[in-house]
């Protein structure tokens, strides 16, 4: 009997398809389980942290009350590509916001793609916030392992001010993400000695500059120092590579500024916040030296010395306003930085661990000094840029100091880790004592912090002297609880309650014009999707393309610029004072717009942004954020009226500044007062002599 041989198996060219499925499966499995050399718990812990970060940043988005100043600019950018490019407040492109537009572009593209609404604007912020946690984790893990990376990622996730600002439409979360991208590329350049990672690091910082100007450059000194000291190439090549990267930095930073300043002023919007209608003045003035030196500086005097975080000084970040936002882990970070550098003292020049410590230590110190000593405009949420440095040092320090504690290389190290935990625990209890009576979460956090801190310190010492490793491990976990219980309580507060959109803070109110109240400027609209529309923010459906009505609402602002949408309510200041801009007035203006480009001209960005979001129409802000910009002149006003581009202007009984006073006087003399609405005047071409 003949036995038939089985048919040959189909051939697989070069074996590629045969290996493809297992390779893809391995990659997918590693995404969830991590590399084979990692502890089994490491990757699940990372995913848990990222889920926690996303939940904190995205929880109950319908309650988010972003900054109407930026919200209005994003809306305007969805109506006009010109307004989009320049970062104009209004779609008619009369004046820009006082920042470069990169963060507005990110939110604007989301709104153009998905429709305008709360979650569409917040989606990029949640993404970059979670992305920052992932980036920090990866950078710390590269040199100090999964334990340090997990603690660093968790510390950044639970930094209260970071949670508060990531649930907002200010540009700071985008700034932090870009700076971390720059740091990651820098460390790759240090380890490999290659030029291109350093160039990409410079490009990332350049984009960060186009997000918030000079604040992006705070980290540059330490970037240069780390590369010059530790890069794996000779000195000559290090200097050459830094020179090339500097060129890339200048180009990636200056391209938008150069283009805008080369365009004739008559063909572009006025540069908000500047004194001479140039981006360059904005860079060195209001967003540069003005932030550091305040009103006393010869440049950048428009900072006006305003501080919502307390008086300038080395103690500022520990005061009653700022302490609960950022300072929880600062004592531990300082000890970790000093201890880590001492322990790596005799390492080779190119030692990657010391370079990493230098990076995060410099990041922390430079930001601390900048924010603590700044005499110009200062908001608590600025310090979110310092959070990665503090979190990284806390994670690295926990591992480095714990190792030194266990090894006992010198008698003094037996006390450093317990002492650092004890000091940080005491400080956390002090912070929680400041808000005692503010609610159960803070009381619980205070008890947990005190008990866990005591367990940690006693457990570490007993474990060391009795040689019980298990006891030491339990003490280490108790230390993590002690250090993070307070920040967790504040972060939960930020995620579950409505915060001020202009000056967001976490936790209970401490008198810093943040939290649930304080400076106005309007809250993030969460109402219906325009007149007769449906809210995309509450229904989850795609926006109708209309701005949410009711956007002039501000539930907490007590200052000029706060606004509500009820008839007869305030929407901000007129020319030198408050004036009544009601929903009824906005309806009247829309009915009688008569083909004008701009619905109305008002004094400040705060008033204009609220009206833009309620009406969906372009509104002129004549004086920028503070009302002191020289964006509107009498000649320009006459030209707009004569051409039919503007019919209505809101003025008050008193003027502010010579040009505004001149405008007020002329409008009152030549315009027709609308008797139903105080401060509102109608102007037509026939009124211009």
Main features:
two-stranded antiparallel ribbon; 689 residues; 3-stranded antiparallel β-sheet; 7 strands; mainly alpha; 3% strand; 2 domains
Short synopsis of the structure:
The chain is mainly alpha-helical and 689 residues long. The protein is built from 24 helices and 7 strands. The strands form 3 sheets. Strands 5-7-6 form a 3-stranded antiparallel beta sheet, covered by helices on one side. A two-stranded antiparallel sheet has the order 1-2.
How many runs of DSSP E, i.e. beta strands? Answer: 7
| Largest sheet: number of strands, sense, barrel closure | 3 strands, antiparallel
So how many helices? Answer: 24
Return residue spans where pLDDT drops below 50 for at least 5 consecutive residues: 14-20, 296-305, 513-545, 549-579, 654-658
Q: What integer value in Å does the Rg equal?
A: 28 Å
Q: What is the overall silhouette?
A: elongated
How would you write the strand order of the largest sheet? 5-7-6
Tell me the β content. under 5%
Q: What is the count of structural domains?
A: 2
Mean pLDDT: 83
* SS content category: mainly alpha
Rounded to the nearest angstrom, the distance between the terminal CA atoms is 117 Å
Helix content: 55-70%
Protein name: Integral membrane protein
Transmembrane segments: 41-59, 80-97, 117-137, 144-167, 217-235, 242-260, 326-343, 355-374, 380-401, 413-432, 444-462, 474-492
Pfam family, one: YkcB_C
Biased composition (Pro residues): 1-11
Walkthrough of the structure:
The protein has 689 residues and is an all-alpha fold. It has two domains: 38-494, no CATH class; 581-685. It is built from 24 helices and seven strands. It has helices at residues 16-33, 42-58, 68-79, 81-86, 102-114, 118-157, 160-166, 172-192, 195-212, 220-230, 235-262, 279-293, 323-326, 330-343, 352-373, 387-407, 413-434, 440-466, 469-496, 536-539, 583-591, 605-615, 634-642, 658-670, and strands at 570-573, 578-580, 601-602, 620-621, 648-650, 672-673, 680-682. The N and C termini lie far apart (117 Å).
